[in-house]
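Support reply, case 0932

Customer input (verbatim):
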Amino acid sequence: MQELYHIVQKSTNSMSAHKDRTSIAIGCCLAAHFMFAIMGTCAKYLAETHHVAEIAFYRNIIVFIPFFLFMIMRQNRHLFKTDKPKLVAVRAVIGGISLIVTFAALAQLPMAYATVLFFASSLLTPALAFFFLKEHVGIHRWSAIFIGMCGVLVIAQPSGAISLIGLALALTAAILHSTMYTILRSLRSESPLTITFYFIIAGILIPGMFMPWVAKGIIVEEIWIFLLIGFSGGVAQIFLSNAYKYAPASLVTPFSYTALLWTVLIDLYIWGYDLAFVPLVIGASLIISAQLYIIYREYINNMKDKNTKGQNQNG
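Our regenerated output:
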């Protein structure tokens, strides 16, 4: 009887710990996308008077200082070394460019439209993995990608209701983001800190090349906004990393769509945009549904792989 009591107690504690981890993951995901919305708002505001390359440069400088100090405090020199320098460098360069393009898209479009189009990056990742990593992508995921792209067309509104330049920038940012995620699959052996470090370095050097021509300098009233854009972006990354640490992507990802709620509210009450809600809702529904289905299919495929490996080991 006592043994049964201990088994039940152990099972209860395990379930409680699982619920706690899930709650932490969801909370971190919600906080991350709220902070990303703040970063986007700051970038959009600053883009009215500053070139997006200048904004990206100062944003990464602000993030670099505490991150570099943290790396030094860890006293692990191997964190600066990588076994795949070329691949890390390529991803870092793409990341540096993607931040500039992302800020440019936010400057051209209402934040809600830009955010939904950024979601398309998850649709493109399986396609890129198919072409560059030779991963198998079945008819289910190809169908989901097609449906998601139809959602992009709905938001694009052939009538020309939104900026075509902004649309092109947002889709370019989505392609760059998905390329970064695809490369990351080949960097699983690398430390996340190492990858992030070189990402920030590239994020300083690439926009830094344009600074002699685009820099206007920071006035006193803008200092806190530049600090906020760096702080919110850095904190968002920390929250997001912890979200995926405590729970699987299939559980965390649906809560990332709260970003759309924040950006709609910001568009309405800060920027005063008159959003076309019907195409936005239809397009967002198609893109998000397609993305969730892709996550579901990847989960099913992973479970099949695990079962196959288990049967082979037992056999």
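We compared this against your earlier run and they match. Two observations from our side: Residues 1-15 have pLDDT under 50 and may be disordered. The chain is about 80% helix and 0% strand. Please reopen the case if you see a mismatch on your end.
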